[in-house]
Design goal:
Elements (H helix, E strand, L loop, with lengths): L1 H22 L15 H15 L3 H16 L28 H14 L6 H15 L31 H9 L5 H7 L7 E3 L5 H4 L13 H11 L8 E3 L11 H7 L6 H8 L4 H9 L1 H15 L22
Antiparallel strand pairs: 1-2
């Protein structure tokens, strides 16, 4: 009996070893070390060129990475263009203003010339974001790679916490993706290099919740400054920095701003006021090293959401189009 049990266990172990690489290939740092050695250095070089030309690329890539991962997982479904038969994610209202798709195209084109159909678009987003964060003074961190690209992109699936969400509602949305309240507060710190269209916060400046007055939680000088930035015409939707001090630097200044009631978006101000998040906000505001440490952990966690690995998905030749 024991002899037969041993044979069964040995056979099961063999089957497990054969099966695992096909279905559960884990993300790992240096995934392309053998298959495409120049992958990470190529991405870094192109991102650096773009950063020199326009430092706001960091904000754009952070938003792209977050918006991609939060829908179907980090599978580059956000990059797919719409067709006559399908409205893709990128045209959804919540993705208004997303940019730097051309930068991803440029990186992909360069990598296809060096290592055809090897580096996924999903990994390009994650690595490009990492490089842009480092260039903007943020933490330099390792990105586990090995993601594959998704086969589905639908605009009607896009459902993201909005700028007027409460802390509770935002926390529920993050929890549904396996992310903690800590992750949420730290990832919102990406707003340190962000900007927002006036349409996302105009009500806070003059008619908050139909009161006919500005949001009492916004410092008066900030109200006046944003009124000048946005103007009175709703036909022109201007933008304002979410951190008006170090607008192109990934640091903890955002938290100092919201503690001083200079948060631009309602959710920014809410995390500084809500009992569930205010203590962490206070800690991050006084310790830039802690912010960088926590940001590294949170963004790596974000990058692992529902990734496709092994034989799942595909490696797109063109990030905008599924392989034929």
């Amino acid at each position: 009996m024991m002899k037969n049990y041993g044979l069964i266990m040995k056979a099961s172990l063999v089957n497990l070893i054969i099966t695992l690489p096909l279905t559960l290939a884990a993300l790992r740092v240096g995934f392309y070390a053998t298959s495409c050695p120049p992958a990470e250095s190529t991405i870094q070089e192109i991102v650096q060129q773009r950063f020199v030309a326009d430092k706001s690329v960091t904000s754009a890539l952070l938003r792209m990475h977050y918006h991609d991962c939060f829908i179907r997982g980090c599978d580059a479904s956000l990059l797919i263009d719409s067709t006559s038969n399908n409205q893709a994610e990128k045209v959804a209202g919540a993705n208004f203003g997303l940019r730097e798709f051309e930068l991803i195209d440029k990186i992909k084109s360069s990598l296809e010339a060096k290592c055809p159909q090897t580096v996924s678009c999903a990994d390009i987003i994650a690595l490009a974001t990492r490089d842009a964060v480092g260039l903007a003074g943020g933490p330099k961190y390792n990105v586990p790679t090995g993601r594959r690209d998704g086969l589905i992109s639908r605009s009607n699936e896009v459902n993201l916490p909005g700028p007027t969400s409460t802390v509770s509602d935002s926390q529920k949305a993050f929890k549904a993706h396996g992310l903690t309240l800590n992750d949420m507060v730290v990832l919102l710190g990406a707003h340190t290099v962000g900007s927002a269209h006036c349409s996302f916060f105009r009500d806070r400046l003059s008619n908050f919740r139909g009161s006919g007055a500005p949001d009492p939680k916004m410092e008066r000088g900030t109200v006046n400054k944003l009124r000048k930035t946005c103007g009175t015409s709703t036909n022109v939707d201007r933008t304002a920095f979410l951190d008006d001090n170090t607008s192109f630097v990934v640091d903890n200044m955002y938290y100092k701003e919201i503690i001083s009631r200079r948060g631009v978006l309602q959710i920014d101000q809410e995390i500084a006021e809500d009992k569930a998040s205010s203590k962490l906000v206070a800690k991050l505001a006084t310790n830039n090293a802690l912010f960088k440490q926590q940001f590294t952990k949170a963004i790596v966690n974000l990058g692992k959401l529902q990734v496709l690995e092994g034989n799942n998905g595909e490696i797109r030749r063109n990030c905008r189009v599924h392989n034929v």
